[in-house]
Amino acid sequence: MRYFGQKLVQLIIVVVAVTFTVSLALAAIPNSEERILAVQGVNANDEEVRNATLDELHLRDPLIVQYGHFVQDLVTLDWGTTFGGNQEVRTAIWDGLQISLRLMIYAQLLALLLAIPIAVLAAYRSGGIFDRLSTTGAFGLISLPNYVLATVLSLIFAVRWRIFPVLSEPVSFFDAPVDHVKNFLLPTVVLALPLAATYMRLLRADLVNTLQSDFITTARAKGLSTSRILFGHALRPSLFSLLTAAAVNVGALVGGSVVVETAFSLEGLGGKTVAGIFSNEFRLVQITVVVLALVYVFINFVVDIAYGFLDPRVRAGRALS
Amino acid sequence: MKHTTRASRRPKIALAGAALAFGLLVAACGGGDDGGSSGTEAPAGSEAPSGSDAPSATEAPSGTDPAKVPMPGGTLVMGLEAETSDPWRPSEMVCAISCHMVARSVYDALMVPGEDNVPHPYLAESVTPNDDCTVWSITARSGVKFHDGTDFDGAAIVENLSRHKTALLTGTAIKSVTDISVDAADPMTAVVTVEKPWCTFTWYLTGQIGYMASPAWLAASDADEALRNQPVGTGPFVFDSYKPGESYKGVKNADYWNQPYPYLDSIEYIPINDGLKRRDALKAGDIDILHTGNGEVITEFRNSPDEFPSLEITKNGETAYTLLHVTQEGSPIQDQRVRCAMAYATDNALVNEIVSFGVNQLANGPFSPDQVGYLEDSGYPLEQDMARAQELIADYKAENPGELKISLATTTDATNLVIANYQVDFYKEAGFDEVTVDQIDQAQYIVTALLGNFQVFQWRNHGGVDLDQQYVWWHSSSSLDVGALALNFGRIKDAQLDELLDANRASTDPAEKKQIAEDVNRLFAEQCYNIWGSYQVWMIPHKPGINGIEANNLVLPDGMAALEGAGIAGTFYPATVWRES
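ok -> structure tokens follow
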């Protein structure tokens, strides 16, 4: 419980730091006022209109007051509308978040489904043909930029064979399950393959070490089956690196899949952030950054807690401390 | 993103595309004339003959294969080159080509350019001037209702035009309008008074200023911002849904006043900025039709006419060029020698061949061969003359010691960056000490131009039939200070140019107007106000079985077919499109 409390305090500190930094970032942007006025179509030479617009956005208040307004709006979900498009920022972010979360979950699941059995097999026959082939293949996938993979897969499966669309649409699974799969499969595969390669290599390395442990030798001596030893005894304590990498990638995938999102015309959270930066949608960018930070912090918090469940030694370590 | 760059000249570049489009107001493209001057007879043809009827449902519009009878039904998904408007209120739209495509679904313009290169009444029943073109009477077509049930009448016209009059952008275009009011004797008629003779006023009613929105919706959207993206017009398709940057959908207006249009049940527009991706989307079947100015894509679709039939538009189109801010304080570009050195240093043939696959014709002025004012020899250098460029720069530097630096702006598009890199090479070879390249996102690009925050800018504009359509881009009355939104992006202030533009505006004599336009062309060549690139070719490739995209399929109420090219390059009239199955 004390450990949980410590982590919660850390979480709050990070959130305050992020929101404060994001709130002040606007003031640090060169000509931020002019940019906002321009994108809103406000004549910068008209003092009255100019001041009214800046007041409405609290841009002429002291920084600490601006932060106060920012936090208040954030907490009350009064996120306003985009400067261009008059779209609710809340709606824009929610739309993007749904796409990014789906992509993240699908990609993680596919990557883990591919990585775990391959890594287990490769580690079991370490140095064998399968191990060498899978390791080489993983190197290839890790070194292949995802925009290349996206382009190649899109050209083959969408443009040439017309199995999948070039422009993916965020179709709901419950409305049209087949269309949903068709629209999300290619971007998921593009995201998942390099991830699977990374996960496979991490897990394989940890498994090779674990398989040399005394308790594995004991298990073998007790006559347990190979699959029982691999999946029942060796896998769980070998998951640390994989879990850490997967957790880090959760945040990265939610906000950082811009290339893949762009390649398949899926406007997720990352894509919205980049578009927002280019079109001076500062409010959208600010809130998105905070949402992404919250996702990162929350996932890491969950992972920290999960470590204890994965390995009794962690729990024991905490108990001793 | 800001960086100084030097490009290596690559023999083959697999990227090509269009420069930025900005077809605000009435940037007309197309035209059935073969270079004559018939298109300059403005007001004469603007009265609808009495008894004009809408075409009957069985009538095949001109330009249609008689063997093919339009079939109602179906849906059309179009890939647009950009998302360029929001809100969708006519007086606030920042309307490029893609925006006009969408706007034509939901709105009707008061007038539409006819095959005879003259604006004809469309949503308006008639548009008539007084003797000296200082008072215009615009009569609303009777029996027309907006999608929300509001009547279209003189008050609706007044409401729409009055909003334009006070709008930041379009207000500049109709600056000389002094009064807009409902005719006391006829509630269906709006009376527009202008401060000096304006015989070409009707051209301004064929584009953005002519789009009529429901006054009830305009009032409601004043109070509720969310409504501003749910347009209500009289057009062939009723607004259904809009997600900025993703999709705009309209459904058939079954009560459309100009029957038998529209044929389609629904239409959807999807912005896909990347020209190559737009092509792939068509090939994959994600979209049914697209528009493109990308040389690589045009070349590719030219080679597959059976799989993807296409309409190519080469007449009266826009000119791709480098826009110069010619009056910016402290800028070397104020000096004519520097500007002309940039013109002489540019190897347009090389850029056109490599970037546009040689699809476009090289430009020597603002007017393409089918536009009034085009000259085979305008005095502008069509070929690179680096020695002359270096001579001019050396001359300038002798009087202005110190480093000669300029900043060149382009979009984030890869093709435009390639062009910019060539320009950097050309200018440096001519003697510029430093040329920096700024990449600006397309959405911000237009705003940057409007604000005048640039020195050298890649641009595309000046399609149209009548010289008056260029008035707002070049007249000093729309050249405001840097920081204020102005349509004279280059902030040209030239008394001679003003005089010519004003004379053209007041004239109804085709010969005189032709002479004026040619003089304008020569003036631009002499002053090097812009660095001309090429005349833009547009293509509209589509799936087989899609018909009616030729603009002359639209039969105007007076029986005239609409102008080829649909008045604005790269567009068509969605009302006339139909599918075979």
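The CA atoms of residues 92 and 156 of chain A lie 32 Å apart.
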